[in-house]
Prior knowledge:
seven-stranded mixed beta sheet; four-stranded antiparallel beta sheet; 11 strands; about 0% helix
Amino acid sequence: QVQLVESGGGLVQAGGSLRLSCAGSGRTFSSYAMAWFRQAPGKEREFVATIDRIGGITDYADSVKGRFTISRDNAKNTLYLQMNSLKPEDTAVYYCAATRTVYTSKSDLYDYWGQGTQVTVSS
Length: 123
């Protein structure tokens, strides 16, 4: 089992940057593929980015490709999401998630979720 805690959200102007972090508990963090999802008010949760267990393979939603970068540091049990060139439509609660399966964009395959961190991008 792993517990996840996100941090790093906040208010930023369009065009700005933020880096989200997701701290995982336990010794098995490297056993999980990880991902970031987000949910805007009145909308369904959507996939943002995913990364494999060792950090060698990543995948992104088309809406964030070229602007966001997912990475992990297994020695620190931490997942990151570097967000650049932020847009108002990136405003959402961002969640990190862990899965025992291979990395995937399918939210129903993730076993553990954090509580979320709010990102607000003003125009």
